Amino acid sequence: MNIIGSFQPIKKLPMYLFILFLLSSSVNALTESEFVELLLDNAFFEKEQINLAIKQIEMQGDRDNYGNWEFEIGGEIGRINKSKNKFDYTSSTDYAKSTNQNVRKISTDLTKKFFSNGSELNISYDKSLPVKNEEMHDKNGYQLDKDTTEYLDDIEVSWTLPLLKNKNGVVDQKTYDLAVLDYKDEKLLLAEVKEDFIEDKLMIFLDWVGYKEQIRIVKNRLNVSKDILFKIKQADVNKGSILAMKRSIDKSTRIILKLESKLKAEQKSLSILLKSIDINKNPLVVNWDMKPNLINDLNAYCQTNVRDIQRIEIEKIQNNRYIKTYDNSQLPDLDFTITASKDDNKGNYSTYSKSSETEYEAKIEFSYPLTGDISNEVYLSKYRLKSRQLELKYQDKFDDVLSAAKKLNTEIKQGIKRLELYKSQINSIDVQSAELKEFLSGNGNIHFVIGELNDNQDLSIEYVIAAIDFHKSRVKYDSLLDRLFVSN
Question: What's the CA gap between 298 and 92, in Å, rounded?
């Protein structure tokens, strides 16, 4: 029974290269980077984008509100009726026994705070046009011809600069400064959400590739088994060998069905993510030779590049901003103010009159509550104590990230060695194996052939699983160090 002459070799290509070739041969293959780009193009982060937009509006609003010109205008229209009686009046001076007065008045006030130093500018202007109809009285009798019309213009400009409390606007600017930090934190949070999302979906990506490759390996083994079965049916071989090979084929079929079930589950998840992509026509591929750039100085890198650590640093800055505010609020009010005002008055009262008064003033005002501000002291103590809490939080997170990075660093290095070992073992496989040659020449046992095919299949599958695990570690490493998504 020598049928080796009619049996064609399975493959001459090294097995692990053959596995990689299967993926890379697809013209429309979807690479890992293209997959990530498609994820980021979809509207998966609309809620977080809205939160960021809200924070930006709040930040800009606080800035604009602080330095905004506040303009107020008011008016007054009224009528005043007054009567007056003097008893035992002996003076020769006239007085108004009754007055009917129409009041017309307009007032404006313009205020602006300056962000750079916390000072405040105020400009006010008042204008009135009252009309008086007075009934005059003296010791000689009544006089009814006394009418007075007055025009009053009053303008004042003042500028106040805080010297202790709220110096440089430290109290007033707190809201804006915190809004700026909130916006920075929201940007980091959005980037972190995208980072975690990409990591999670890349795990599905890699699982799909892993199952797809295992299916190809088992299908290749199944084709070899069917080819052997066909050959041994043509030869004078005992029924036990045929039955054993059929069982081997059935087992391979069951393995394929199980793997295809897992593949379909992953493909369903991917179809939701990639609605416009047909994965059957655009299969996913992995650059199997891709290796992460391992960081030598993890301490320095984590401090400046890991977002979770940066966010705690922002918390610390926010807390210090509160402390700065409440610490300054403990100081007395000491304000320097300069004022210039001018009053113009024009009217007639028996005779024409006109007056103008200009005033300049420079002053320093001091005030301080002798009992202090209890509420302010409570908040100051609270945020000073919170400083230590944030230091501990920062150190815990830093240690966690550093420990996880070192662990993944080790896993990746070990994974590289493990893959190299698999490659050398797979390359040493003689695809036209000795057991198969012996059996086909009539001197071997079909069970030894099946066992060797099983060993070769298991080794190839183990290589694929090890390769997928390695790339998962690579993705986790890059995600931990915030390198999967690079924000602008």
Answer: 99
Cβ proximity of 462 and 422 under 8 Å: yes
pLDDT in tens, 274-300: 887 888 888 899 999 888 899 999 999
416 found inside a domain: yes
Query: How confident is the prediction for the chain on average, in pLDDT?
Result: 85
Rounded to whole angstroms, how far apart are CA atoms 15 and 423?
A: 9
Element (H, E) at 190: helix 174-234
pLDDT tens digit sequence for 240-279 = 888 888 999 999 999 999 999 999 999 999 888 888 788 8
If DSSP codes are grouped into helix, strand and coil, which group holds residue 171?
Answer: coil
Together in a domain, 396 and 436: yes
Place of tokens 């103590």: 381
Give the residue among 265, 267, 256 at the shortest CA–CA distance from 213: 256
DSSP H or E segment with residue 47: helix 46-66
According to DSSP, residue 332 is labeled P
* Residue ranges in the chain modelled with pLDDT below 50: 1-26, 350-351
In a domain, residue 148? The reply is: yes
Domain hosting residue 261, numbered range = 4-58+177-321+380-480
341 and 306 both lie in a single domain: no
Residues 6+ apart with CB under 8 A from 228: 7, 245, 436, 449
Tell me the C-alpha distance between 313 and 336, whole Å.
37
- CA 353-356-360 angle, to 5 degrees, is 160
